[in-house]
Each structure stands twice: as structure tokens, then as C-alpha cells.
Queue: 4 jobs
Job 1
Amino acid sequence: MPFTLPTDIQNRPVAVIGAGTLGRRIALMFATRGGEVRIYDRSADAEEAAVAYVRENVAEVAATVEGGSPGRVVFTSDLAEALAGAWLVVEAIPERLDLKKEIFGQLDRAADADAILASNSSSYPTSQFIDRVEHPERVLNMHFYMPPKQNAIDIMSDGHTDRGIIDLLKRELPHYGVFPFEAHKESTGFIFNRVWAAIKRESLAVVAEGVSTPQDVDRMWQINMGTPAGPFRMMDQVGLDVVLDIEEHYAAERPGLPGGPRELLRKYVDAGHLGVKTGRGFYDDYTGGKK
Ligand code: NAD
């Protein structure tokens, strides 16, 4: 059956697959229009924290969304139950290609025929995991940053995505307080992640070359850009092992990137100083994982 765009979306649920760091935040945003959001995770342990997170925050976040009102969140560990009637399915399971391929095959078989199937993957274009999908025209990347604070989204075709889906999402997503930007070509890192990667890389290079210190770079950044945290503080928050993995991925795809930034990161990672999560990274003033 050929794919047709979903209709009556105001009265249909959104399903989020994966209840981790991002899944629960994505669910929160889709719960800001008074409708139902279903969170599916194969681990029932994920339920309590994810549902509590959405319930605790939904009233406050819905109040920031024009025309918003708190919706309902439901957890299930039954995939068919999560998908029934959903107009949009957003996958946010771990960043492993084998898992992504498997789940997209399942979603394509089990979701309603007109459901849009989106992936929150940070680094894989969806063109890489549609080999078990019969309807690649309904699949695309929809990459969130860190809602409800960082609400820009990259959207990107898998090479076959129905143009109507991209237009529909550009029109509808702002109603949920998130703002889509289309990558017009396939791009590892989409749009903003690439810009941010360049900032991180050059900040690291300045320190690796002995030109400056993490503290001074951050302070200059704060003064000139007017933001509360600079690049080094932000890298500590993400985790220096994760920052290194991301940079390795870019370096593998684009030979010629300078090695100094990765060498500096490796020193910290090898010493076990991964940032906030280990209590020490470029900074050592983290207490109770709060900073
Ligand atoms: P996470 O590890 O916090 O959560 C993943 C969840 O998926 C876990 O609750 C796990 O139980 C569940 N899960 C694993 N396999 C599953 C399956 N087959 N079916 C259903 N649930 C399954 O991961 P995360 O940090 O939320 O990342 C999820 C995705 O979002 C990744 O693709 C990542 O690249 C992307 N992403 C992460 C961030 C971030 O800052 N963490 C930002 C943007 C995008």
C-alpha cells in the first residue's frame, strides 16, 4: 500500500521508542498540546524515571508553548500497544547501527500505514538503517538537541523520504515548542552539531597548542557571547569520552582534521577524567554531579 500523509494528527498519539536521556525529553515536548504520548522501552526499569520526568515538567513547559496544555504520558513495554494509532514515532534507543536497523524493521511492520517513522540518532543518517524497511518514504532523521532548553531540531531525508512529511513536520513541530531546520543534503552531524564541532575543535586546539587555558577560553566566551557556560564547561557536561568519540567519527570521515584536539581529549579520558560524571574533567569543581 502506498504511503499517505497522516491526518487528524491533533487527536492521535505520538510514540517515543526508548525512555532514556533523550526519549523522556522528546516525550515531554510532545505532551505539551494536551494529547497522549506513549513511551516504549524494552526495559520496564526505565518507566518510573521517564514518566516521573514528564509529569514533573509538563505543566511548566506547556505554559511556554503557545496554545499549549499539559497532555498525558503513558508507558508501555508492548511495542504494538505503543504504536497503535500513533501518527508519529520517534526512535531514541542507543546509538548502535545493529539496534537501529532492527527497530526500524519492527516499526515499519507494526506502525499504522500512515505513521511517520523518525530517528533521533546523533550520528547516523537514516539511509543507513532502512534495509529492513518496506516504506523508506516514511522514514527520516529528526534530531533533537536537549529539550526543553535547546529546542532546535535537524530534519533530514533518508534519500527516499516523502517531501510531504518534511513540509508537514516543518509546519506542525513548532506547535509543540520545537523548531525544525532541514538539512538539504545528507550530512554527518546534520547542521548545528557540525558548527558546534568546529567550535569545540578550535577551542581544544588553542589549549593543546599551549596558547590558552580552558578557564580563559570559557571566560572569554562568556564575556563575548553572553552565555552562562563556555565550550570546556559544556564538554565536561556532555562527557569527554563522548566528545572524543564524536570527534573520532568526524575525523574518520574527513581526513585532514587536526589531531591536537583528539590528543588533548585522550589525555583526560585515559586519566579517567571524563567531566561531570566522574567529578573531574577540564574543571575539578563538580560536587554531587550537579555542576
Ligand atoms: P540512553 O542510553 O539514555 O537511553 C536509551 C534507552 O533505550 C534506554 O532506556 C534503553 O533501555 C532503551 N532501549 C535499548 N534498546 C531498546 C529497544 N530495542 N527498544 C526499546 N528501547 C530500547 O540514550 P540517549 O542518550 O537517550 O540516546 C538515545 C538516542 O538519542 C541515540 O541515538 C543518541 O545518539 C541520540 N541523542 C542523544 C543525545 C544526548 O545528549 N544524550 C542528544 C541527541 C541525540
Job 2
Amino acid sequence: MQKLEVFGANKLKGEINISGSKNASLPILAATLLTNKKVYLNNLPKVKDIETMISLLRSLGSKTKFNKKNLIVDNSKQNKNFASYNLVKTMRAGILVLGPLLAKFGRAKVSLPGGCAIGTRPVDLHLKALSKLGVKYKIIQGYIHATAPKGLIGTKITFSKISVGATENLIIAATLAKGTTILKNCAIEPEIKDLTNFLIKLGCNLKWLSNRTIRIKGVKNIHEIKYSVMFDRIEAGTYLVAAAATEGNLRIKKVIPEIIKTEINILKRIGAKIILKKNQIHIYGNKTIRNTNIKTAPYPGFPTDLQAQIMVLLCKANRKSLIKEDIFENRFMHVSELNRMGAKILIKGNKALIEGNIKFTAAELMATDLRASVSLILAALTTRGKSIINRIYHLDRGYENIEKKLKRVGAKIRRIN
Ligand code: UD1
């Protein structure tokens, strides 16, 4: 099994180009199932989750091929509606094929994704909302067997809780439904806006009526299009934290700063100096890191996917800080590993009390999920000595070329078998 060896404590300096967004690419790939025409996708990140989604599409009968920087998805002969456990279990976003398959075929059999390291992660919101569009379903031996006997029929749906995945699944499903669907209390993550921009370009009739309400009028014909996926805001946030934690100086390129202003404002509050340009952010880490309190929340709040990374930074703050995790119930697995590196973090329910002024010590560590893994790299980058991070397959699910990108800005990091 591969490991990462990290030698700190270099100040990171230079430029990093941010890749395309994993979390925008996944629903867009699922949404290609709606059309029989070719779709050309640009800026997909080269990460494992994208490979898994492409394998899932291929298992459903899609033809895909890479041509220079584009992935061409050809669904003209796509004819299967069965998404197997083997593919969906490794990546929860596999559930996103349920909406388009139902929209297209009126029936689908899709594996339940099951729980994962960061919580139970049910799909009840997806299923409840799909039922309102006329879907009947049964869960049999871990599979959702769903049919829409009269086709999908547009209606008004208010989500009882904000969910990124359920919003995406329903938006995609409703694009081919009969009549008009109004979805209220939607998630409005930038990746969802990227999905709706993609669908609009495809010829779907979508309109955001207000902040969290979207209107979708069913359409019959969909075009052939080219689309370039947005930047990965979590990757950008991760490297911003890396600069702040190592007192570095990084130019984060190929981003839209406006989209991550919550994160930028927090980094400024903590003491980093930040200069914004049109498509780049220049950050200078400060020696003194000021403490702060953060709670994770749906967009435009602070992203749960950046919680582990910012915690590393707060360990180095001048006083105690507090992080409240309001999205997932079990997203503090990085804490025990950070504590093994000398951090003093106490968990009380969904709150982490973080002692400041910590000097991490190098250690051998175990990665537990995607964002937890990267937080261990960040901590290791701030301290002298050799840290070894095991189980890095989690990292490869979501960070494109992380060692290369870090090496180019002065980190000593290498992959070993
Ligand atoms: C997406 C992101 C993930 C991010 C998360 C929150 C992708 C591929 N993944 O995950 O990186 O951390 O948003 O920003 O885009 N919930 C239910 N029932 C449901 C669905 C969700 O109770 O049917 C709960 C979840 O357990 C969680 C909360 O709602 O507590 C938010 O989850 P959701 O927004 O759906 O996250 P994902 O779409 O799975």
C-alpha cells in the first residue's frame, strides 16, 4: 500500500494551478445520462472519484473517451439502468445516477451507497423528493428499485433539510419531467450553480427564482455541448491554508476569488495577508496566527470539506479556538491523529476545542478520509522531521497531483510503496 513521506518545515512559495472541481464534475457527469447527444467536458480533475463515475457511466452503456483535454461522453446507445454496489459503494455520489436514469427510462435499480467514515449519510431526502415526482420505490437487498409508472411529473417540493446531493439529483431528474417543478430550500453550493449552468447550456429550462428556489420546466430535446467545469474551491482552500500554516507565500491560480470569500475572510481574520486578482489569490502567511471560532454550514457558510484543514491552522493560533461541525456527525477523525502529533484538541459532541500555540511533532499517521488525509499533510508540512502518512488512497479520490503541486512550491514530499 502506498504511503506519503513528508519532511517539514519549509515555507511554501510559488504558484499553484487549481484543478477542476471534483464535486462539480460528478453531478455533471451523471447529468450527461439525460442526453443522447455527445457532451464534451473540459477541466475534469484527474482523480479517482472521477474515474469511478466514468466507470459507472460505462457500466450503464455510455461510451467515453478522452480527446486532448476533453472527455467525450456519447450516450447515443446508453441503455442500462442498473448501478451496481461495486461502483456505488466506493463513491457516494454514485447515487446521482438515480435521478437521470428515472427521468430517461422511468425505472432504475441503484445500489444504496451505505454509510462512510464521516457519518451515516442516508439518502432519505433524495428518495422522499423523488416520490413527490411520482417515483415508487422499494429497498430490496441493499438496492433501490425505483419506477415512475406514469413518468416523472413536475410538482412543488420543499426539502426539509439542505442537501447538496438531493438538490442535484432532483434538479437533474426534473429536467425531463412533465410540467413544472419548483424546488425550495435547495443547496446553493457553487457546484450546484455549475450543474445548472451546464443543464441550461444543454437546453434544459431552469431558472433560479430566489436564493434557494429553482423552477424547472420539463423539456424533450437536449443539445450537443461543450462545457468546462469550474475550479475546485476546496483544493484552493487547502492550498491557502497550506500557505498560512507554513508562513509561506503562494499564488493560487485559475480560481474565482468571489466564490470563496467566506474562506478568504476567515484567513484574513486569522492574520494572513491576501491580495485578490481576477483569477488568482496571493496569500502571505503571517508568523502570528490569531485564534477564531468557526462553524461549518451550507454555502455560503464555511465548508465542512475545509474543516480538517483549518483546524491544523488553528492549532498554531495564539489562543484557544473552537470549531463547530454542523453538517456531518462524525467528521473529527483527524483529531486523534493530530493529537498524536502534539495537538491538544478536545471533542465535545459536535464541537472541537482547540488549544493554540502547538508545535506539531513528526509522526507515522493513518489517513481516514479525503479531507482528514490532507489535514495530516498540512500538519506534517509545518514541522521538522519525517512524517509518514498511511492509507493515502483516500487522498487520490479528490486531490489531483498533490505531491507534484506541493513539491513545486518547495515541500519535501514523496510517495513510497
Ligand atoms: C456533498 C459533497 C461533500 C460535502 C457535502 C456537504 C459531493 C460529491 N459531495 O455531499 O463533499 O461534504 O456535500 O457540503 O458533492 N442528509 C440526510 N439525508 C439525505 C441526504 C443528506 O440526512 O438524503 C444529511 C447528511 O447526512 C449530512 C447533510 O444532510 O448530514 C448534508 O449532506 P449532503 O449535503 O447531502 O452531502 P452530500 O451531497 O453527500
Job 3
Amino acid sequence: MTNWKEKVIYQIWPRSFNDSNGDGIGDLVGIIEKLDYLKRLGIDLIWLSPVYLSSNKDYGYDIDDYYHINPEFGTMEDFDKLLEEAKLRGIGIIMDLVANHTSDQHEWFKKALDDPSSPYRDYYFFRKGKEGSPPNNWMSFFGGSSWTYDAKSKEYYLTQFTPNQCDLNWENVNMRQGIYDIMRFWLDKGIAGFRMDVINAISKDEELRDKDPDKKGLQFPAELTLNRPKTHTYLQEMNREVLSKYDCITIGEGALAGQEDVVRYTHPDSKELQMMFHFDLHMLGCGSLGRYDFRKLYRWRILDFKKVLISWQTEMQKQGGWIGSYLSNHDQRRQVSLFGDDKKFRRESAKALCLLNFTLRGTPFIYQGEEIGMVDCPLRQHEWRDYEAINAYEVLQQMMHVPAFIARSIIKKANRDNARTPMQWNAMKNAGFTTGKPWIKVNPNYMQLNAEDDEKHPESILTFYRDTIAFRKKHPVLTWGSFTSLCDAHKKAVVYIREDNKEKLFVLINMSNNHTKINFKNTNIKAPRLIYSTHKEERPFEEIMKLAPFEGRVYELN
Ligand code: TEU
Ligand code: CA
């Protein structure tokens, strides 16, 4: 069996990766064209965000048919070719399994909607309303009610994301078998495994009770829809019936999953999943309702970031859980803009964040464009494409009475589109992404910020990613070793030791845009040897260590 934990994974959001036929939309042939680029980077696996037939209200996450490729992306032949070409380069393909919901155009849902007595009706949650209102007070992830009304049957159905993403009822055994069939179909083709979309949301409160019934208005029902006990039962069944029969990787997306939850999902004894993403680093600075919750938006400090990071590292290690370690993806702002400095210290902070992600305990993920230090692309209202952003603009004004210009500025900052603008390949028109009209704006900074330039420069962010991937692979301690945090109270730098019985590595990263000092007098850290760093100058160890803005170093301790 493959040891998937030691792999390096690159996420492709296909629509914005590379367009091969000039229609302005990235596609599978476009990905094939870039496989050599990915091979040079040194990654092992590609996680492909959904490429199935989709209604595209949530760009691929609202699936009409799991057995067909979205024609915008190509054909099943293109997919098979991608799989084969990737394999030739030693790269595996991870598919995105969206099993919490289907789109309302999926044949299951169409049958369910057409005929209330159809067996498919129970594949979803159809309920009568309460006094002219939805069945309960649940608020959707994207704002507004979680229920969508069907005028024909006068019933509502549960839609926890967009109104066309219909939540599946995992209580229904035939539905579950239907999902397992889909999984077998792709695994039999030879894919490497699955990233599972909001997999911790598949079981809901049996009675679909109101959240905080005494409160007025919609409530986000976290405890009633996330990490429910039965989620584990279903995942164990999925593992027994499907996953255990294949040598495959499994990564769950744990939307708002806590540490105890992630341990249960990923502990080898649970026989559920191998690893899980958590959201806690990205929730920093957000209100309880998420990125657009303006009521509690606050500025976080590096100490807050460290606290979350260190606590996840230590707890997962102590309790035997395993995370997918990431700083950005298609749902989050660009990591340099969010956690680093996208102006003066763009290069330095991109490298510092890379070093951080690749020296932690967990399996490292890279999101397309991260490896060249892409930054948020602020968009004007008519350039927004994401449903969540467009909807939040209305919700902020109507439900929360925020003036339009403030709503716009909140959206502009947090919009998922920030990280969905096309990959910047070169300095040619549209950053070399397409010869046609791109489906979403290309960040105008592509003349100075693109992969071709970075490939030429030994000091570039891209070169640093390559070197860092190679560095991680050369030092298995970075994957398997223990994690011990030092200097917890230091306000700027993250400091930790990774250790196994062969090696002891000492990592220091300045997360700030200021110079900083760390005092190692009176500690037993003496004269370690520098083996890797973000800055190329000689950096001998000093008892009072000085770090430049976003400087990171790795020493070997005796
Ligand atoms: O994301 C789950 C999820 O919780 C996000 O919706 C997150 O809360 C949101 O981005 C915060 O702004 C997954 C996918 O990664 C996302 O792209 C989908 O929109 C969502 O599920 C629904 O399938
Ligand atoms: Ca195309």
C-alpha cells in the first residue's frame, strides 16, 4: 500500500488553469499541456476540482452527472488521456467527490421533483413548511435560508449551499450505494483517490430541529448539520465497501471541523479517512458566520495565527490525527495577500509561507498560482463571478442593513474570485491563459508576475517551491518526525523542532514585515548548522538571532 501521507499535492481549479482552445475556459487538454511544468515542480498528485457535468452555479460543485465530463472541459477521452499522460510522469489524479449534494439537474433530483411518490424523493430532504415559512430556521452556508421552495408540491427541499445544490439524504441506503458506484467507476479507471467536499456535513439532525428556537431570524445550524455521530458510521461503511478495496488516497474537507472531529475522521483505528482539511487558520479575522460576517470582522495578530497553528500541530500529533496542510485553495483569498505581504515583501512572504507549509506535520497542498506568489485580484462588481459573493451582496444589504458601498467593499476583499482569476503563465496577452476572452478577469499584474519569468530565475518563488519540495522529500523527518513548538510567546516568529531518531531540524520563520530578534541564550540550542533558508546570504547561528522580514531558516541540531 502506498504511503500517501508523504506525497505533495497540487490543486487545479480547471476553469482558470489553462485554456487550450481559445474559448476562454481552462480545460483538460490545457492541463495535459502543463504536466511537464508540474513534473518539474516536483509534485506527486494533482487534486482536480470537479470536472463533471455541472450547472455551474457553483462552478463544478453543483453536479448534474458524475459519469460525464463537463463539455467545457473536454471529453472522457481527454480525461483518460490526462490520466495516462500524468501516469507517464509519475503523477496521480485525485478527483473531487461532491457527495453532500447534487445539482437540481441531476437525474435523481429531477425524478424526485417530478413525482413525490418516486423512490428518489427520499434521496433528498423534502419537507412541508411551517406557517408559510421554511421547515426550520437553518441559514445556508452562503447566506439566506437553507430551504428552496417547490411550488408544485408545495414542499421545501434542503439546499445548504446554493439553491440548486440539493442536500442528499445519507439515511437512504440506495442513495449511498449510488454514491459508492460513482466512486468505483472512477477508481476503476485508475484515479489515485478522492478529495471529499464538505464530507463532514453528510449527516443532519434526524428531526431537522430549529437551531436556537428562541432566537429570531435564521441561525447557522453548525451542531445540527456538521460532524454528526452518523457521519462516522457512513464513512466507515464507505471505507468498508469501497475505499478499503483500492490503494487510494482520501482527504476530507472538514468545514468547521474541530480537532476532536478530525482525529476521529483520520485516526487509523477509525477506518474512515486518511487526512482532513480544517478551516481554523482561515477563520481568523472572520465573524462566526464566516468571511462576510462584517459584525465581528477583526484584525488578527501573528500570535493568533501561531496559537491556532501550534495547537493543531500538537493535538494531531498527540491524538494520532492527520491533516492536509494548506494555506490557500479555491475558496480562500490568495495566501500572500491573506497571511503575507502582497506589496513590498511579496517574494519574501511567499517563500516564508511555503517554507512553513512544507515543514509542518501534515501532507502539503499547493493551490495553482501559489507557487509563483499570485496575489488577490480585486474585482469590480460587474466582474464578480462567484455565487457566494453575489448573494452575500444582497444578504448584507437586505438582512443586515449594510449600505451598498460598504457591502461592496466587504465583498471585494473576501470574494472567492480573488483566487480564481486565471493562472499567470507568461507576459503575453491574457497571461498566456487563453487566446480568447477569459471567463473572468486576468490579474493585470501578469506582466511582472508569471511562471515563465519565475522559471528563468534561480531566486524566484517558483524555484524556491521546487527546492522546498525536494528538501521535504530529502528529509523524511519533515513528514514523520515529531513537532515541538518553541518561543510560543514570540510575537513575530514561528519556531519549532521536527525530530526523529535520525535527524533534528530546527525551523524559524519570521511571519512579519519587520526585522525581529529571538533570544536563545540560556537554552541548549547551540551552534546548529544551517541547511535551508529563504534568504541566500550566509546566516550563522547567533544566540540572539536576527531575522529579516519574512526570513525563514532551517538548522540541523546536534
Ligand atoms: O466548500 C465548503 C465550504 O464550507 C465553503 O463553502 C466555505 O464555507 C466557503 O467557501 C466560505 O466562503 C466546498 C467547496 O470547496 C466550495 O467550493 C463549494 O462551494 C462548497 O463546498 C459547496 O460544494
Ligand atoms: Ca477551453
Job 4
Amino acid sequence: MKKYNPKLIERKWQKKWAESGIYKDYSKPKKFYALDMFPYPSGAGLHVGHPKGYIATDVVSRFKMLNGFSVLHPMGWDAFGLPAENYAIQNKIHPEAAVKENIKTFKKQLGLFGFTYDWDREINTTDPEYYKWTQWIFLKMFEKGLAFESDEPINWCPSCQTGLALEDLENGLCERCGTQVVQKKMRQWVLKMTDYADRLLEDLDREELDWEKSIVDQQKNWIGRSEGAIVKFSIVTNGSLASTMEAKLPNMLEVFTTRLDTIFGCTYCVVGPEHPIIEKLKDQIKNYKEVEKYVIKAQNKTDLERTDLQKEKTGVELQGIRVTNPFNNEELPLFVADYVLGHYGTGAVMAVPAHDERDFEFAKKYKLPIKKVILPEELLNIPRNLEDIAAGARTELRVESDCFICDGKLVNSGKYSDLTSEKAREKMAAWLEKKKIGGKKVNYKMRDWVFSRQRYWGEPIPIIHCEKCGTVGVPEKDLPVELPKVEKYEPTGTGEGPLANIKEWVNAECPQCGGPGKRETNTMPQWAGSSWYYLRYIDPKNEKELVGKTEEKKWMPVDLYVGGAEHATRHLLYARFWHKFLYDIGVVSTKEPFKKLVHVGLIQGEDGRKMSKRWGNVINPDEVIFEYGADSIRLYEMFMGPFMQNIAWNTKGVVGMRRFLDKVWKLKSVISEQRSVNNNLEILLHKTIKKVTEDIESFRFNTAISALMIFLNELEKQERLFTVHCSLFIKLLSPFVPHIAEEIWEKLGHDKSIFFEKWPEYDPKLIKDEQIMLVIQINGKVRDQIEVASGVKEKDAKELALAQDKIVKYIGDSSIKKIIFVRDRLINFVI
Ligand code: ANZ
Ligand code: ZN
């Protein structure tokens, strides 16, 4: 018998699969859309960490094929953006040429793994035929007023020489190059993502969404919904309200607060250094010079530094300006302080030092009054007169030790005293609304998407500026607006993109009046093309539409999406935003794009560090495949540990996998057609089928593979092997190691691909000993237990549990708020 030679058989099957196009049977009634986050074709090529997610989707894709699904499993290139451009500048090669080269390398590398990609659907975000539609979506947003120009200060990276979105920062540093960003006022294009904030948040809880909780939480925090209120404080300058009114100066200061109930404890107000009022009331501010100096200094601090609780608070009083608390008409001082951020809420706060830690620190430093107005719940049980306690609060209870942000009962709050915080917030907001000086308000941390970059390598923004008509969208028939070929593509640093230097390109006729116009020279950010690419795979050659209606209905939503966790608050947020917009204009039929989302744990270098050229710990998959074969590396990456965990690479592990496959290879020489009954083996086989099936569905590839290893050990102990056993075993193995599986399958006498087969089913009778005790809890307390079949589904367990007498009694009339189900362990009803 010939030795197992992966090089030969892998090349053979990859060729066969490509020729026969076995993955392209899209006619089955059931569909499965498996998507990978498409790669950025960098100059360095793939390292062994990149394919981990791709292997997983490939395993699932093949598994789904065997289960009778038409599987869409495409691949493409996310090739616009800074890294490609920086690489090009460093290597003195045009980005377009660099991208072409890099894609070639990537494609060759991916080809070695034997993935089921349908390359007919390959897309490239830098292809004009593709970005035509990226521009089209922008135009639609422009038409709907969701894309607009703004002059607000934005985050600017002095090293990359471009404006950035909030999502492009990491702790206040440019995510690309680690340089500290600065605030820069400049013209820019913005997408009104905040209009979608509530839907982006609420739809995360849609039932059909099967996303990892950690990613959902990250996104929820990023969107950052706060329920609060707006209060307008009137502004008094030089002792009179009228003086501002006459001069048409701002006469109201709006603050956003989540704790309206504390307003009687407000002893001063604060605006952030970015607040427009400072500039507008410049002549009224007596110490304007000092204020201006403070404002300039604040520009060099990151938001993180500014809001850090440990850092000492600083600020300057705006002398000559006072504000009036509408609830008690107290006149209060107004400060500028950088712990208040310009772009959150209204950029101004009412300070309540007794109940807010930052205000407290600030008040201590500047000797401002601290007035207690909430008595925390835990103190309410002390049977004493509330007002007494409050009066003595400062001596009796140290202010610092009080719970800063907690609800309780109001004291010292006029007619609102004695109300609970919650009740008071309601009443106070209603009063504000009645008086038309504020009211309830929901606020989001998320901001609109700063969408223009002053760089070359991106989609041109399809806008023409005309002196007469203003900003005019390029007509649809003139799309794509192609990126001109240029010699020089380095950033200008002037705030204009490099495209501004290309006069022939910039000068264009105004589509509305035919007069002279100028093209927009900013380009789109790296995240534009990836915000909708999953739709183009569905219908990649459609010239009339971004995606055809029938095709869209057939394939959407994406059933499985696998990629890095670092995209939780960027790509995944942007893509959901665009998808919702496309839903609103009738291009797509689903509210959410990605049904199941799984994040892939990183593969670190053998030294446990991030795999990177810098550490010299990069492992190239080509070499591993050359040495051990693609099936071995596929198996190893799925076996190395729980899929979502970060794990260090270990080449010895690949060697182990290769040995396992050597043993699998030997099986086929000892098979006989005869079939005798070996009940134990039969039972183990059916248990293995069950385990592998369930484990693949739930991304527990490592335990699926160990079950297969255990089964192989048993097989090897048999004196004679039977075709049925071996066939079933090979089928179970095939999604992981498709090449060797095909080869053995062929040797077993089959003339059709193993991937036309049906996935094995287990016989429940054979494994019926698997009964377990399921614990039933109510509000976390054990109340009963029942015997059920192992692997019982949540729905069935719920039904069974709710049918138990004891449980019926405990639940009574209460409604079930939530069910927590731990497979084969417990079911907990929260009532
Ligand atoms: C008065 C108050 C009293 C507040 C109290 C808190 C506790 P979240 O929950 O994150 O939305 N705030 C409002 N705008 C701000 C800004 N631009 N920069 C810094 N802080 C700002 O936080 C809302 C609370 O943060 C608001 O409620 C406001 O302080 C502050 F005992 O108002 B609060
Ligand atoms: Zn940068």
C-alpha cells in the first residue's frame, strides 16, 4: 500500500472540485449562507492565524452540504484604506498595483487549504464595478439627508494626516498608527448614524439574532443609551437676563442629566471647552483671556484623560456669567472644565457635587457648596426624621462614603421632598415640559459617522460642488466616479485630499446647472466597502441593481458570520446601520444582516505573543502545508482548543494530527465487506455521530475531533473492519479533512464525491441509556428535578418542567420573565 501523501491527493482533489464545481449547486430547497470577514490583502500575506475562522466556516459549509443545504460560501477582498496606501507609499509602488500583487498571494495561499469558495462570486472593494454601488448607497443617503457636510471639530491623526471617526480611535489614539489624535475643525462628510441608534440597539435583542453575548454587550455599550432629561438654565450676564436678550446672545444653557431628581443639589454648572457659548459670550466673559488659554490647553488631552476619575479636575469660572436653576431660581456660577466632553449630551452639565463623584472632586478643589438632596435607600430604614439626617449628613455620614449615584428619597427639594428618585424624575420632567424649558430625553454615546478621509486610496465621494447649486450628487448614470490614476498619492496634510491636486479630475460640470463645478476630493473611509459586501456576493454581476430582489430573498440573512472580535463596535455597527438604511429604501428584505455571529479566538505565536513580524514569531501556513498537508493544519486549528479562545501555536500539535491521519489512511487496507454484529462498537459509533453532529453545530470542533479520535482507537482494536463502520467514520471526518476523506471514499469504490452523500443519522435506540437528571430552579433556587433524555432541547425541557406539580405551585400567577437553560444540567425560571 502506498503511504499517505497529502501533497498528491490534495492537489488532485482541489483540481477536481474546481472543475466539477460541486459547491455550486444552488438548487436545493434549503439554503445556508456562510460568511467570513473578508481579508485585507496586506503585503505580508497570510499567517497561520488568519485561516482559523475560514477553516471553521468551511467545516460548517461542508457539514451543511452533507445535510442537504445549498451553501453560499464566498470570498473577496477588502482592499481600500490606509494600510494598503501606507504599504504602497513605503514600498514605492502604486496602491492599485500593490493590491493586485497582494491579492494574488492571498488567493494562492487560501487555495492550498481546499476551501469551498465559489470564486465566480469573488469581489474586490476597489473594483470600480463594485464601488459604483458603494457610491450609489452614499448618494441614496445624501438624497435622504443622512449624508451631510459639517464643520464640527473632529479627531485628526497628525501622522496619518486624515480625519477619523470615533470608532477609529483606541483610547484616544489613532487605531492605525498609535499617534495621539487632536481635535481639528474642518469640513467633512458625516453619516447620520445616530438616527438609527434606537433601532441598532433594540434589534440586538431580536429573537432571531444568535450573537455571542460579549459582542452584543460591547455594541450596546458603544451605542450607550441613557435615559435622562434636558433642563434649560437661563443665562444672566452682567446682572441681567435682558442684556443677553437684547444683544441676541444665547440666553439659555441646556444641560443633559440622567439625575434630574438631584437638581435641588445643583450648586454650579459646567460647559465643556468645546461649547459654542464660550465664543458667543466672549465679550461678556470678564476673564476671557484666561478662559481661552484653558480651552486651548484642553484640546491636547484625550477624552480618556479628561474623564479619568483619578486625574485631578481643572477648570475656570466664566466670570460675569451666571445661570439660574429653574426649580428654585438660585443663581449659580458657570465654569468651563474639561471633564465635561463637548460632544456628549449637550456638552454642558448641571453639577451636583453631593451625588456625583467628578462634581464632588471639582467642588472640593474650588470650594463650591455641596448640598445633599438624596438619601440612599439603605439609610431609609433608620427610623428618623429624614430632614434631620440630611441636615446632619455632612458630619454624621462622610459625604464620600455615600453612594454617589444611587436612587433614594428626596430631601431639601421643596415640594418634591419625600418622593422617591424615580417618582421625582417623572414629576420634574413633566413640569419642565409644561414650562417648555426641557423635558425627558434619551441620549446616545454613539456619534454620527465621520465619513470623509483626506487620503487617496478610497472610494471618491460622488459629489460635485457648484457655486450656484451647492453640493450636488453625481447622477446615477455617471457612476462610478472612478478614482483617477495618479503619480503622487501621498497625503497633502492641508486638510484637502491628494485628489485636489488633479485639476483635470477636479473640474467637472455641475449636473444640475451645467456650470463649472468641482468634484469632492475627500474619499470614503476603509469601512465603507465592507458595510454591504455580503449583499454583492449574492448577485455579484448584476449591472442594474446592487442586488436582485429574488436572489436577495433567497439568501439573506447571512446564516453564519465568523470573524474577529475587534470588529464588534466598528464593522459590525456600520454594516448593521447600512443594512437598516437599505431595508428602509426597499433594497433588502431583512431587518438584520447577520443571524448567527461567532468570534474567532486568535492564534498567538509559539511564544504566546501576538503573531507579528515585530516579534519574529510569524508562522507561514504554506510551509506547514508543504510539510504536513492541508488536512493536518485544518484539523490542528480546529483541535487546538475552544474555538473562541486565544491559543498559542504549537507545531508539535500539527505533527500529532498528521499521525492521526496516517492511521486513518491505513484503515482502508483492512476493510472487508462482511458485516458482523459488534454491539459495543455500534453503540460507540452512534454516540460519536450524535456528538460530532451537535458539536459542529455549536462550534465545539475540538471535542468533535476528540470523539473521532476515540472512535478510531476502537476501530483499530477490531480484528476485522467493516465497510459500514469505516464509511460512516469517514463521513464524520470529511468536513474537517476533505481531501483525505475524498480519496478514501473513492478507494472504497464510490464514483461520486463524498460531499454528495447524506450526513449520518444516529439511532436513538442505541444510545438510549443516556438519561440525565435536569435540575429545575425558580429564581435560582432548586425546586425540583426530572429525568430526561440527554440533549433535551430547551423547548421540551421547559414544557416538561412546567408540567411538574411542584413547579406549577411555585410559579402560581407570576409571569416568567426569563428562562436560563444549561444543557443537560438545569433550567431556571426567573419570575
Ligand atoms: C447631574 C447628575 C447628578 C449627574 C448625579 C449624574 C449624577 P451617562 O449615564 O453616561 O449618560 N454628563 C452629561 N453630559 C456630559 C458631558 N458632555 N460630559 C461629561 N459628563 C456629562 O451620564 C450622564 C451624566 O453625566 C449626566 O447626569 C451628567 O451628570 C453627566 F448625582 O447630571 B448628571
Ligand atoms: Zn494615524
